[in-house]
């Protein structure tokens, strides 16, 4: 049970980091598109 819990926590951390990177990437893309137009 301990290893699966640890794996779940690791996945949650990975997903939160990934979503943060994704949202910041989207913001950067929108900003660049705004400046180009």
Give the fraction of residues assigned to helices.
over 70%
- Averaged pLDDT: 90
Which regions contain 5 or more consecutive residues with pLDDT less than 50? none
Order of helices and strands: H
- Radius of gyration computed on alpha carbons: 16 Å
Q: Describe the largest sheet.
A: none
Oligomer: single chain
Q: Tell me, what's the shape?
A: rod-shaped
Structural class: mainly alpha
Whole-number tally of structural domains: 1
Per DSSP, the total helix count is 1
The end-to-end distance, rounded to whole angstroms, is 54 Å
Share of β-strand residues: under 5%
In total, the number of strands is: 0
Q: Would you write up a description of this structure?
A:
This protein is 95% helix and 0% strand. The protein has 37 residues and is mainly alpha-helical. It has one domain.
Sum this structure up briefly.
With 37 residues, the protein is mainly α. The chain contains one helix and no strands.
What's the topology here?
Layout: H1 2-36
Provide keyphrases for this structure.
single chain; mainly alpha; rod-shaped; 37 residues
């Amino acid at each position: 049970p301990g290893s699966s819990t640890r794996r779940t926590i690791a996945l949650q951390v990975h997903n939160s980091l990934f979503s943060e990177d994704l949202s910041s990437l989207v913001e950067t893309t929108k900003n660049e598109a705004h400046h180009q137009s």
